[in-house]
Structures are given as structure tokens and as C-alpha cells.
Amino acid sequence: MSQSPKPAKPESFEKNIERLDAIVRQLDDANLPLEQALQIYEEGMKLSELCQKQLQEAESRIQVLIKKAGGKIVAEPFEREENETESI
């Protein structure tokens, strides 16, 4: 029986940010050939979208614990400040 290969586990947010930082440094190099710069730029845009998605997923998991008047602790969904929603 042959097993189909498992899909690669996505890189962590931190690894993606490190790679994105490296891409920015590469693009700052004035001697980079145009075709290579375009390929690196495309990779950076994909990583940027992935990082944004990872942040949105993390935000959706955040819950704020609020102590109710009776002493009971209740988990409520995290709500962003109104001015924070358009800052990205």
C-alpha cells in the first residue's frame, strides 16, 4: 500500500515574518535583476497575505474574560476597537 504524502505543515507566523523581512532586504539591493526582483516580490506578496490571514485567525481565537457581577467568569469574543479595524 502506498501512502499519499501529507501536505506540508504551514510555516509559523514568526518564520513567515522572518522570510518576509529577508525578502524586503533582497529587494533593497539595487543590483538585483528585474526578473528575480519580480519573483521575490510575488513571494513576498503571498507571504504578506498569509501572515495577514494568520493574524486574523489568531484574533478570532482571542477571548476576553469578563468577571460578571455574581463573581462568575464568562468568556466573550474579542472585539477590536473601531479605529483598529482599518489600520491594516
What does this structure look like?
It is built from 2 helices and 2 strands, in the order H-H-E-E. With 88 residues, the protein is mainly alpha-helical. It has one domain (13-80). A hairpin with a 5-residue loop joins strand 1 (63-67) and strand 2 (73-77). It is elongated, with a radius of gyration of 20 Å. The chain starts with 12 loop residues before the first helix and ends in an 11-residue tail after the last strand.
Spatial sequence of strands, sheet with the most strands: 1-2
Tally of alpha and pi helices: 2
Kindly name the structural category: mainly alpha
Major beta sheet summary: 2 strands, antiparallel
Topology as H/E string?
Answer: HHEE
Query: What's the number of domains?
Result: 1
Number of strands: 2
Low-confidence parts, pLDDT < 50 over ≥5 residues?
none
Distance between the termini: 48 Å
What's the overall geometry? Answer: elongated
* Rg, Å, rounded: 20 Å
Strand proportion: 5-15%
**DSSP helix fraction:** 40-55%
Averaged pLDDT:
79
